């Protein structure tokens, strides 16, 4: 029971945070990553090989960066996120660009309103770590993917070198309170990022789970 409560509490805090910063989310990412998040997202789009006639899903789509990039490749897709303010920001960006190939839906990643074996591609950028249950979410993604479908995951990693990893954690420990104060008026607002990252299985753990699932 305690685990379920902690998980629900974490999910609620994450949802509240993203709702509070939705209008400044892209700016926050630019500052935190020095603009590199845009490079990494473009790389995901390039790796996707998404082409006209295919069906796709951008899960935890946020303000729509990856979804917009995929739509430019000529096919329609769905953008799903649990957070309504983030979806509203995505809708504004899509309308501003006259982009009609992305349909937005508010839904739980563990209960996708999609048919079995219906998608050629699923992408998820900086979302897997925030989901209530990573394994259940990956099983749900597997359910909606066609046999041979493609899954691309972009998220924080953990440096293998312990010294570099320590410097990485120190940077986050120092800078996250600054970001929280600047953008939320609360120095502890971003504290969950470092906590969740330390618990997150990162690249090795996610790879292990995916291989167990047959990827």
From TrEMBL:
CDD domains per record: AdoMet_MTases (cd02440)
Q: Which GO terms describe its biological process?
A: ketone biosynthetic process; methylation
Enumerate the Pfam families for this protein: Ubie_methyltran (PF01209)
Q: Does the keyword Lipid metabolism apply?
A: no
Entry keyword set: Membrane, Methyltransferase, S-adenosyl-L-methionine, Transferase, Transmembrane, Transmembrane helix
GO molecular function (one): methyltransferase activity
Keyword Membrane attached? yes
TM region(s), chain numbering:
168-194
The record's section on InterPro entries has: SAM-dependent_MTases_sf, UbiE/COQ5_MeTrFase, UbiE/COQ5_MeTrFase_CS
* NCBIfam families, sorted: MenG_MenH_UbiE
| Name assigned to this protein | Methyltransferase domain-containing protein
Q: Which organism is it from?
A: marine metagenome
């Amino acid at each position: 029971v305690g685990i379920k409560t902690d998980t629900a509490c974490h999910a609620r805090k994450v949802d509240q945070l993203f709702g509070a910063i939705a209008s400044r989310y892209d700016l926050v990412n630019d500052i935190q990553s020095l603009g590199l998040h845009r490079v990494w997202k473009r790389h995901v789009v390039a790796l996707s090989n998404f082409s006209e006639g295919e069906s796709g899903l951008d899960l935890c789509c946020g303000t729509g960066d990856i979804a917009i990039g995929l739509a430019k490749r000529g096919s329609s897709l769905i953008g799903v996120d649990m957070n309504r303010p983030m979806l509203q920001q995505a809708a504004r960006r899509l309308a501003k660009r006259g982009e009609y190939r992305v349909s937005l839906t508010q839904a739980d990643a563990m209960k996708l309103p999609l048919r079995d074996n219906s998608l050629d591609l699923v992408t998820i950028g900086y979302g897997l770590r925030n989901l209530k249950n990573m394994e259940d979410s990956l099983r749900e993604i597997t359910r909606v993917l066609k046999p041979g479908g493609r899954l691309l995951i972009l998220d924080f990693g953990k440096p293998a070198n312990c010294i570099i990893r320590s410097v990485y954690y120190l940077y986050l420990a120092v800078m996250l309170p600054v970001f929280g104060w600047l953008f939320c008026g609360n120095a502890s607002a971003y504290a969950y990022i470092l906590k969740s990252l330390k618990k997150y299985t990162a690249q090795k753990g996610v790879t292990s789970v995916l291989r167990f699932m047959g990827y």
